[in-house]
Amino acid sequence: MKLHSNGLAASKTGRILSKGFRIIDCPKTIIVEDELVEQGRRFHFMTSIGWILVSIVAVCQLGNAQASSGAATFKSKCALCHGADGTGNTTLGKQLQAANLGSKEVQKKTDAELHKTVHDGNGNMPPFGEQLSDDEITQVVKYVRHFGKMAKK
Ligand code: HEC
After folding, report:
1. C-alpha span between 45 and 53 (Å, rounded)
2. List of domains in the chain
3. 0.70 exceeded by the pTM?
4. Which of 82, 94, 107, 132 most suits a substitution to test ligand 1, by most atoms within 8 Å of the C-beta?
5. Which residues contact 43 (CB under 8 A, 6 or more apart)?
6. Distance from the CA of 35 to the center of ligand 1, in angstroms?
7. Is pLDDT larger for residue 28 or for residue 143?
8. Contact, 71 vs 133, CB < 8 A?
């Protein structure tokens, strides 16, 4: 307090203005240092939060990768007949009368039934038991389910 009023007095005289500033500057630097420490803490906090977010995103990506592996399988093995949209509206699909995968007839079947059809084939539908693992069939059946959800919308 005493220093401060000295500083004010100094600026009033104008002569020892710089000295007055130095006096006032002092607490400022301390405050700045405090802020740096505070910012440092905040930075650590943000990095922790950042890592938590990165982990959450990574876990979600894993889930997406599984879903998209069903999509990838579908595009490479099934879309030729069933079409990318699952309707079976392709040249080959029309010739072979590929099922519309979003239709009620297909969607009302259980996962186990669809799994079996994909695994063993059915009529013109070729069997995929030799090409795809059980897990890949499970994923592609999950993907087939999303045509049902799309059709309802
Ligand atoms: C060579 C063409 C062709 C390919 C490739 C093909 N399908 Fe099919 N799919 C068909 C035909 C044709 C049917 C109708 C079979 C029937 O009911 O006689 C069918 C029917 C289905 C059905 C309906 C089964 C039911 O029980 O109603 C599902 C589900 C299905 N296919 C999924 C798939 C999946 C998943 C793939 C890729 C792994 C695939 N299909 C690849 C031609 C194909």
Report:
1. 12
2. 1-68 (no CATH), 78-153 (1.10.760)
3. no
4. 82
5. none
6. 66
7. 143
8. no
